[in-house]
Amino acid sequence: MKKILLSVISVFLCASILRGAGQYSITMFVVRPPFDINFSSPRHLMISFASNAFGMYQSVPKYNMGHVYVSIDGPESHVITGSSRHKSSRTGWSNFIKGYGLGMLFCSFPGRLDDEQKINFKIASRYRDGSLSFIRFIISKATYDRVMEYYKEYLIRTEYQFYNGENKPREGLGAGCTAYAISFLQVAGLLNDEFEPLWAQAVRVPTELVGGPLTGHKVSGLKILASRRWAAADEPHFLFKIYDPLLMHNWIKKVVQNRNDRISFYISDNHALSACPFERIKIENSPGLIFDCRNITTPDEPIFLVPGSGSTGCSAK
């Protein structure tokens, strides 16, 4: 009972810190994986993923690749959301056994939105162990309205039913947890391609390691373990790109730790965020950044870039 009471108090205290009175904001909460994910080769990627999937650690729930939530707040409203694979879906390991190999990286799985009532408690439980980091963006009313319009339309289109896929939620082509969260920052005009080398992984997956519907091949786990490099640009491959919670978490942590550095040490002076007042904070052992972005112009481009059904060429039912 005492533990539950402390959790409730922690939830409300942390929420009050990150939800300024009378302000509109977007907050991205990043949960790092229990162990580092190694993208240096197909072999290392498979080994590090297996270490997270089957390793022993205390954090619950366990996120094998990390996880990201996003909160949208106004003076009288609060929405917190995240994208996950559906709990009833067992297609991941089933398809791996069927010989999908690294074709799994491109497949769409049955998806769902995280339970709002549980997210706050999941976040609060991670402040102490430092596996969580966060960035809060204070935004204008116009930007807030645009982001909320995107969120509501996303629900109406039921795009959340397609997890992963091509990780292009604004085009209706699926979204993992990071692509989903990042899309809110893109809709708000707070993120551009400059952050890709800072927060994203991009690898050329050799076609010979891609099984399933994309190629019609079967690929064994042993073949992946024997593969020690990604494909060169002139070799047959599929490009896999994903925003990586580990890179995002480490970047936030680095900026917060180096308190005397200007933000321009980490992003160029040309980026809109470089002109935004910001502060570094910590909630227990979790590092965070707060940017005041109220002067950034609200984008006027379409919220959904291409109307789509959410399906991909490698869907897993």
- Output the strand order for the largest sheet: 3-2-1-6-11-10
How many DSSP helices? 9
Class based on secondary structure composition and strand pairing? alpha+beta
Give the integer mean of the pLDDT values.
86
End-to-end separation: 41 Å
Largest sheet: 6 strands, mixed
Helix content: 25-40%
User: What overall form do the CA principal axes indicate?
Assistant: globular
Radius of gyration: 20 Å
Q: List unreliable stretches of 5+ residues.
A: 4-8, 309-317
Taken as a percent bin, the fraction of beta residues is 15-25%
What is the total tally of β strands?
11
Give the helices and strands as they follow along the chain: HEHEEEHEHEHEHHEHEHEE
What does this structure look like?
- The chain has 317 residues and is of the alpha+beta class.
- It has nine helices and eleven strands.
- The protein has helices at 2-18, 42-54, 91-97, 116-124, 141-157, 177-187, 196-199, 221-225, 245-257; strands spanning 24-31, 67-74, 77-81, 83-85, 108-113, 132-139, 162-164, 200-206, 237-243, 278-283, 286-292.
- The strands form three sheets. A six-stranded mixed beta sheet has the order 3-2-1-6-11-10, sandwiched between helices. The protein has a three-stranded antiparallel beta sheet with strand order 4-5-7, with helices on one face. A two-stranded antiparallel sheet has the order 8-9.
- Helix 1 crosses helix 4 (116-124).
- The chain is globular and about 55 Å long.
